[in-house]
Amino acid sequence: MENNKEALLPRLRQTPLFAAWPEDVIAPLLAQSRPLTLESGDILFAEGSSARSFYFLASGRIDLIAAAATGQEKIVEIIQPDDLFAEAVAFLGGRYPVTAQADVATTVLEIPLDLFVESLEQRPLLMRQMLARLSMRLHFLVKELRHLSVESAEQRLVSYLLDLCPMLNGPAAFELPARKAAVAARLGLAPETLSRVLTRIRKAGLIEVERRMIIVPDPPALRRWAEGH
Prior knowledge:
The protein has helices spanning 9-12, 23-31, 113-121, 124-150, 153-164, 180-186, 191-203, 219-227; strands at residues 34-38, 43-45, 53-59, 62-67, 73-79, 84-85, 99-102, 106-112, 172-175, 208-210, 213-216. By secondary structure, the chain is α+β, with helices and mostly antiparallel strands. Helix 5 (153-164) packs antiparallel against helix 8 and helix 6 crosses helix 7 (191-203). The longest helix has 27 residues, at 124-150. The radius of gyration is 19 Å and the shape is globular.
């Protein structure tokens, strides 16, 4: 990550949360933020711990992990560079609802919640924009819950692959955002199940797999295949 935090300002302004923030408002927040470097496997924050900051991912990858009642853990989201995460804790009683763990060498910008909330309280328009973002996130999580509860392994994987496709009306190529084991956990699948389904789709001629690179020659055909499962 750049040593100069100001170099991150254009990237922060590209996020939905900060896109409308004037420079004289975001500059003091950036000045009070600090970069943190994590190694693979390091815990940024633990589920249930007191929250004083939220984060912007400058480089690397972060897994958000939730503990189930059975004691098992599930990856609920894979955070990619230029994503903000944990901002919702400002409205959730001050504790992190998940654990954040670095999947690879990672750098984040730690943004103080108290100054962030103070800025929102002084500017009602910014507060409304924040609530709109959280509402959109809620709709996304409801959609994800439906996928995990009623869709087959084939449908879950195909929906995930199509969401990653840069285009849906022609051939597309993209890289999986994480290791296959992490993607499997994200979809609520065992790693061997993910491998079997990928092999089945590849043998059907609907995708090509080169390590983490996925090529989808015909996205509509892939969607039709999933609908049959």
